[in-house]
Amino acid sequence: METFVQPQNEPEITLILAVPFPARLKALWPVISSFTHVKRIVIVKGQLSNAEFFETSALLPKIYEPLIEKGMSQGGRTRSVKVDVCLQDSTISRTLLSKLGLLGGGGAGAAVDGIARIFLDCGDETVVPPPARDIVLKHCQNTTSVDHTPKAIVAVGPERGMDG
């Protein structure tokens, strides 16, 4: 007699990415989508993102979808990655994050919902953030619910930084 083990809930990672250099973005699509637990990629404006980057063909589904499929096959994935390109909003903000369903219910900086939120500003060389692993463990490990799905939201700013 075979016994089936109920699979554990897979972690879910949402990556918020301020528009990078177009050639870099084309290279990133398959890499990001090869990671098993990345379920959603959100492309946003950073205050210091170059305006001409918003017109790149790398943000068109006909360009990024085949690159995502390539990454999924390299990572052995079968579930698709959701992509949101949010360039109509002026820049990343609480309003935008709320529209995307990415804000927690605990107020500014709180993660009472068990979702780890990590913000990386590539232009800020004065602050060394704590290891992402520590943040994820702090916010996701103490959940006692059996049906809890560990989640993390990782926001990465553009190469020049998020603001001046």
Describe what you observe in this structure.
The chain is α/β, with parallel strands linked by helices. It is built from four helices and five strands. The chain has a five-stranded parallel sheet with strand order 3-2-1-5-4. Strand 1, helix 1 (22-34) and strand 2 form a beta-alpha-beta unit. Helix 1 runs parallel beside helix 2 (61-75). The longest helix is centred in the middle third of the chain and has 15 residues, at 61-75. It is globular, with a radius of gyration of 17 Å.
The N- and C-terminal alpha carbons lie at a distance of 64 Å
Radius of gyration, in Å, reads 17 Å
How big a fraction of the residues is strand? 15-25%
How many separate helices? 4
Secondary structure blueprint with pairings:
Elements: E1 12-18, H1 22-34, E2 38-44, H2 61-75, E3 82-86, H3 94-99, E4 115-120, H4 132-140, E5 151-156
Parallel strand pairs: 1-2, 1-5, 2-3, 4-5
Helix pairs in contact: 1-2
Describe the structure concisely for a colleague.
The chain is of the alpha/beta class. The protein has helices at 22-34, 61-75, 94-99, 132-140, and strands spanning 12-18, 38-44, 82-86, 115-120, 151-156.
Key descriptive features of the protein:
164 residues; alpha/beta; five-stranded parallel sheet; globular
